[in-house]
Amino acid sequence: GDFSNTATASSELSGCVRFAKNPFSEHYIAQFVLLENNELPATYSTYDNILLKVKIGDVIKEFELIGEAPNGSLFLGINEFDYSADFLFDELYLGWDLPCIIYIGNSQYNFTIKCGNFVEVCDAEGFPMAPAQMTAKEAVAVFVEENAPYMGVAMDFFAVNAEHFEIMKSEELSESLNGNFFMISLDTFAPYWTINHYGEGVKTQIAYLKYNVYGRSFEATEFTHSYTIENDLLTVMDPYQVRRLSEDIYVTYEQDDGGNYVIPAHLMIRYEESVTGSMSVYDEMLPHILLTMIPEIQENVNDYIQW
After folding, report:
1. Collapsing DSSP states into helix, strand and coil, what is residue 294?
2. Which of 11, 38, 130, 146 has the greatest number of beta carbons closer than 10 A?
């Protein structure tokens, strides 16, 4: 490509874009290397806003790049739940060349990322198309780990993708709801956890976890409620529609003002270990829950909603 600034116009530009798998997720990181006159790395200060504009079809998308001044590489997708690099990766995988402009202060860098044999190389190296959005596993982990800044994003994920999750039929729900389950409320303002035991039409709340000034406290409880399953709804005082994310993880929905079950209410995660009044929440419960999340999402979820 070429670059221009206050000292030059349309000077020669070379460089490359590298994609790497994010080691902590199913997403990608993109690294941009810009060489002015084919040899000098682009220079910038810590105060410069660095903006990437990419033309995808007839649409121009804008992304903020992060770099290490004064002349380090520029990165996309290195922040948690930043899927920007996924968009570039997927468009190249679909066969598009990507015209780009990077703005750094008064400098402008124009170039095109050629797709070339991108698909063949990715297939050979095991680089699949990216989710380009929050995944089901990430949305569950946000609430399990109480990642407060992203609870709203995860809540939106469950709401927007509700139709992709299979509604549990009455007979399936009766068979699946046996044993102990964590129930995590999806209320971002007043979240709470309970551990419920389901069996033979009865729900027994055997533990309740709540906040106190030191964090979470554990209370052993014994509240028993009979529940029914009618018209694919789980009813324990309030009716909830249950949808399956995996064999061990379910999400419940409650009605909106129009009577549609589209408001996420709870996560239900199977927990097969023993429950005692002396157990430590983070030392004993969370590792088990996170291990439960490792298996891939079942085929009953739309392929786009990747685990």
Report:
1. coil
2. 130
